[in-house]
Amino acid sequence: MRSRRTELRRTRIETRARGAEAGFTLMEVVIAMLILVTGMVSVLALFTHAVGIHRAAVDDARTVMVAESVLDRLDFEWSESGSVGAVQAMTFEGPEVAPYAVSTSAQPIVDGEDALAVTVTLEWRRGSKEQEAVFHAVLLRDESAVRLAEAKAARTE
Hints:
Blueprint: H1 2-21, H2 26-81, H3 84-88, E1 101-108, E2 115-126, E3 129-140, H4 143-156
Antiparallel strand pairs: 1-2, 2-3
């Protein structure tokens, strides 16, 4: 019988000893929380950086679209009027170019005015920084536009 009592005592003592070791110490919990917080801060910093990159990419895409729109209007005006002066005098304002200040310059490449060297400059603010994008293009008139401009000039004379 004693052996059975001795076994029960040993089992109780071992159970109590294991029970005390079964939980986490305060130091282990603090270290785990520190690792968790460090990981969360790193992920948050990545998201913040990604949002900034996305915003810059959207601005760049919008800038290219506005520049293409301006170039299309210049090309249309040039093919309709047939004169470089009309293209140089154009102004761009309104909702389609809303956040941008647009300036253009156009110079004939050859004396015959069949090709124009065009520069479109867009300026805007991104946050507190001034931004600027400069686009260069060459506008070519096709033969039908040249003939149409010559016919209009002949009618007016």
